[in-house]
Amino acid sequence: MRVSLFITCYNDTLFPETGKAVVRVLERLGHTVEFPAGQTCCGQMHWNTGYQDEAMPLLRRFVEQFRNAEAVVSPSTSCVAMMHDHYPLMAERLKDEKLKAEVAALLPRVWEFSQFLTKKLGLEDVGAYYPHRVTYHASCHGLRSLHLGDGPQRLLRAVKGIDLVEIENLEQCCGFGGTFAIKNAEVSSAMLSEKVRGVLNTRAEAVTGCDNSCLMHIGGALHRERTGVRPVHLAEILASEEGGAR
Amino acid sequence: MSEALDPRTAPKFQVAAKTLLGDSQLRKNVRHATKVIQTKRAKVVNEMPDWQDLRESGKQIRRHTMRHLDFYLEQFERNCTAAGGHVHWARDAEDARRIVVELVKASGAEGGSAKEVIKIKSMTTEEIQLNKALEAAGIHAYETDLAELIIQLGHDQPSHIVVPALHKNRSQIREIFEREMKLPGTDFSKLGGTPQDLADAARRFLREKFLRVKTAVSGANFLVAETGSVCIVESEGNGRMCLTLPETLISVAGIDKVIPRFEDLEVMLQLLPRSATGERMNPYNSIWTGVDPARADGPRTFHVVLMDNARTEILADEESRQTLNCIRCGACQNACPVYQQTGGHAYGSVYAGPIGAILTPQLMEMHHAQSLPYASSLCGACYEVCPVKINIPEVLIHLRNKVVRQQSAGLNILGNPEVMALKAVAQVFRSETVFRASQKMGRLAELPLAHKDGQGVGWIDWLPGMLGGWTRVRDLRVMPKQTFREWFEERAEDAPGRRAVDAEKGADNGR
Q1: How far apart are CA A5 and CA A236, in angstroms?
Q2: Model confidence over A38-61: pLDDT tens digits?
Q3: B268 and B220 in contact (C-beta within 8 Å)?
Q4: B17 pLDDT higher than 60
Q5: At what angle do helices B51-67 and B69-82 cross, to 10 degrees?
């Protein structure tokens, strides 16, 4: 399959390793990965913070960049949820019939990375090897908006050598919430403390998930506290192979 | 917390939350109580095979009602009046307070108590700060709901719409009772600490009021348009006492409380108790229609005060009118990870938690409580548990937009660094070239802030200005030397056949 990668603005800038891992996994599975160069941001930060006028051009840009894609894959639950939850409403608000039709036609082809593997391709074992104790963090958008269910955990359980251990507060928000982490820094960090406690209680070496924004937030505290536990995107675990050839 | 919860004077959510986060006893109480109720709710919801269908029915009933609210309100008025009730219309809080005060005063001539009232828990009367208005008019109100009694005796404020004293634990309640309960001939100074002991004390304290005071004030859970009936559900039986013993009963209800048909209660009375208290059915379900024509039972005089207080304005906003569908179960409060940390008082309103975050600013017509729509990580737990499927995150985002529009109107923008910053970033995302340049610039800009750890990885532990909220408790990894797109392009150059595609070219190729 010809897969168009929507890397997202923050993965592009801050977490290129995640993007590389997505490319490796998809190519290993025999798919072609393309990268529409004009892509930037899905508009989530602006839309969710109340800057709706500013988000509209980003919807148009996304549609322009990906309208011809066979499948769009993105390693971010919140960005994909942004599109599925809000793009139809945004197009409606713009009263642009052509755009509305394009959004409706494009969205069924937009997948979050783990969702693409489990739901579109029907895979669980992608031939990965990761001999570490790992806990999985279910991001809220993956859980309640994309309804990923235990898809990511099924992918992880099929990884050779992994010691997957469930966190106690799996369905609890980590407190990131985009600009919430800045605007309500104190409450956000109180929520984060609880999540970090959950991570530490698992005695895992790494915490994984399908959204680097949550992982950046959790990982930032894990680093501040010098816990030695590292955040790692699910794609990076799935890209790891036996013999160290990543 | 002794100051009345008033969104017009309350501090910003962030400010109030910061103080409350320092109260470890309160946080422990809130954590424990929300967890207990959530567990109970999950149990009785999961046993229902048709829960999602019920939620959908609840949503449709509420939506239909709101669409035809004028019709159903007038139908309720006709049927309630025909059954011997008196219906009063209140435009706003002030109107409602004035009407209730006048009715209580007049009740003295009808066998009621003109100087005292007994009250059933009612968030609507809390919303309009009725007790204060009654007190100013020389009328003393006795709260008879156990939690409201705790709040009243403790000179406190409600922190939850179903469990107003959720932030207090048993030993704190015992202290309040021992200190504040006064009744001639009864000694409350040495109480036992079990729930039974405390309930027994409350019973002894309240029984005297039930038997003496002849005027009652209540809220309403539902107003049934088809029959003119009023419905109240409760757990303690104090409500049943207030509804049946007094000579005069005055019920204050928001105009949003109406439902069309009696049989709609079938849906609502399944959704509400399971969502609110994790019970299959409320222990007490009172439904009454006007007054008993023979005057043999119940109050002789019955009044309903139908209050607007900005609800019409909410109804006028197509995107947020679903706020009015709320049946006040409090499930969103229990499920909210923000509420679980701060408790209800941080919201500066009797309506706390996610529903408060959308309802309060709208009740203030967006003139106050503008920090509340931001008091959420948009995690969606509230929407998931809402029995009438109010998409709270969607409404929060809509209200945030209203706030931004106000804040960026005219010259306001210049004094607001957030508005300036977000508008600037939006420009960056509108061009690939500018985006690439900003990525490069960002790497340079952060250099002075970065320092390397043992593994040679760069980290930032201090950021200036509003971004400092991040680095107070978290480190931030520096940007890697190469962005993903730079890697992808470099790789494409190395390997012929692999390339970054230009979407327009792709279109030209007929794909």
Answers
A1: 15
A2: 999 999 999 999 999 999 999 999
A3: no
A4: yes
A5: 90
By CB atoms closer than 10 A (0-12, 13-18, 19+), residue B509 is exposed
C-alpha span between B226 and B263 (Å, rounded): 10
Cβ contact, residue pair B426, A57, below 8 Å: yes
Among A18, A5, A12, A8, which residue's Cα sits nearest to residue A219? A18
CA neighbor of A178 nearest in space, from B397, B331, B386: B397
What are B400-430's pLDDT values in tens digits? 999 999 988 876 677 788 888 899 999 999 9
pLDDT in the model for residue B274: 98
d(CA B405, CA B12): 19
Domain assignments of chain B as residue spans, ordered by start: 22-312, 330-407, 412-445
Q: Structurally, what CATH architecture does the domain formed by B22-312 represent? A: 3-Layer(aba) Sandwich (3.40)
Minimum CA–CA partner of A189 in chain B? B473
pLDDT tens figures, B164-216: 999 999 999 999 999 999 999 999 999 998 999 999 999 999 999 999 999 99
Query: Could you say which DSSP state residue A74 is in?
Result: E
Q: Which amino acid appears at position A216 of this protein? A: M
Q: Is B221 helix (H, G, I), strand (E, B) or coil?
A: coil
Give the other-Cβ count within 10 Å of B432's Cβ: 16
Q: Where in chain A is the domain with CATH 3.40.50?
A: 133-244
Q: Name the segment(s) of chain A with CATH classification 1.20.1050.
A: 2-120
- The secondary structure of A119-161 as a DSSP string is IIS--S----B--SEEEE---HIIIIIS--TTHHHHHHHTSBT
Tabulate helix, strand, coil % of chain A (nearest 5). Answer: 55, 10, 35
Cα A244 to chain centroid, rounded: 24
In sequence order, the β-bridge partners of residue A160 are A129
**B chain contacts of residue A140, beta-carbon cutoff 8 Å:** 377-381
What pLDDT does B504 receive? 46
Q: Are the Cβ atoms of A187 and B342 closer than 8 angstroms?
A: yes
Is the pLDDT reported for residue B290 higher than 80? yes
The answer to whether ipTM exceeds 0.95 is: yes
CATH number of this structure's domain A133-244, picked from the four choices 3.40.50, 1.10.3470, 2.40.50, 3.30.450: 3.40.50
Residues of chain A found within 8 Å of residue B52, distances taken between Cβ atoms: none
Number of A to B CB contacts under 8 A, please give it: 212
Q: Choose among B381, B487, B506: nearest Cβ to A20.
A: B487
Rounded Cα gap, residues B372 and B466, in angstroms: 18
In angstroms, the first-to-last Cα distance of chain B is 65
Residue B503 has pLDDT above 60, yes or no: no
Q: Residue B83: helix, strand or coil by DSSP?
A: coil
Q: Which of A41, A145, A189 sits opposite B472 (nearest CB)?
A: A189
User: Looking at residue B355, what is its pLDDT?
Assistant: 98
The tens-digit pLDDT sequence of chain A (246 residues) is 999 999 999 999 999 999 999 999 999 999 999 999 999 999 999 999 999 999 999 999 999 999 999 999 999 999 999 999 999 999 999 999 999 999 999 999 999 999 999 999 999 999 999 999 999 999 999 999 999 999 999 999 999 999 999 999 999 999 999 999 999 999 999 999 999 999 999 999 999 999 999 999 999 999 999 999 999 999 999 999 998 654
Question: A207, A205, A204: which is closest to A192 by C-alpha?
Answer: A207
| CATH 1.20.1050 assigned to A2-120 | yes
Are A107 and A91 in contact by the 8 Å Cβ rule? The answer is: no
Q: Please answer yes or no on whether A17 and B480 come within 8 Å at the CB atom.
A: yes
Q: pLDDT at position B507, please?
A: 40
Which of A70, A77, A173 to probe by mutation at the B interface, max B CB count within 10 Å? A173
Question: Between chains, do B488 and A178 touch, taking CB under 8 Å as contact?
Answer: no
Are A35 and B485 inside 8 Å of each other by CB?
Answer: yes
